[in-house]
Amino acid sequence: ARAIAMKPKLLMMDEPAAGLNDGETEDLGRLIKGLRDSGITVLIVEHAMPLVMGISDHVVVLDYGRKIAEGTVDEVRSDPKVIEAYLGVEEGGPDA
Question: Is this prediction's pTM over 0.90?
Answer without folding.
Answer: no
